[in-house]
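Example 9 (inverse folding). The structure is encoded as follows.
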């Protein structure tokens, strides 16, 4: 018989005239043997164990990932340094070409200036020689 203090027991009291009192007790129908709960608990335990194994094995993967990240970072830094060095070499080459062009232009300008000065000097010398010749001619032509 079931425990009367059990909260899952359903009691039905039927009262008839004062002479007869009948009481019926019925327990709820059984829901099965309860094995489904054990299966669910076992499944949760297996999933938890698989998760723990995955987490502990994933730790070495994060170390490998960190090493790969560091290697990629250093490779990117090397590529950046190489690109900057090439850019600096190109700029130096252009500056050298500009300096050579400027020197050539300056040399040409100096040569032109020297040629013009020489031409003016030659003209002045010719004018002076002509004036001296004229002066000498006038001196010899002048009455004495």
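The amino acid assigned to each position is listed next.
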């Amino acid at each position: 018989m079931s425990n009367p203090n059990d909260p899952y027991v359903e009691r039905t009291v039927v009262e008839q005239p004062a002479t007869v009192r009948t009481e019926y007790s019925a327990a709820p129908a059984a829901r099965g043997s309860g094995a489904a709960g054990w299966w669910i608990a076992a499944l949760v335990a297996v999933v938890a164990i698989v998760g723990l194994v995955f987490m502990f094995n994933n730790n070495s993967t994060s170390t490998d990932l960190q090493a790969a990240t560091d290697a990629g970072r250093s490779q990117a830094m090397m590529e950046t340094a190489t690109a900057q060095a090439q850019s600096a070499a190109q700029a130096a080459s252009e500056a050298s070409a500009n300096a050579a062009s400027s020197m050539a232009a300056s040399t040409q300008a100096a040569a032109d200036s020297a040629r013009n000065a020489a031409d003016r000097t030659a003209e002045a010398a010719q004018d002076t020689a002509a004036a001296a010749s004229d002066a000498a001619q006038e001196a010899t032509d002048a009455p004495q």
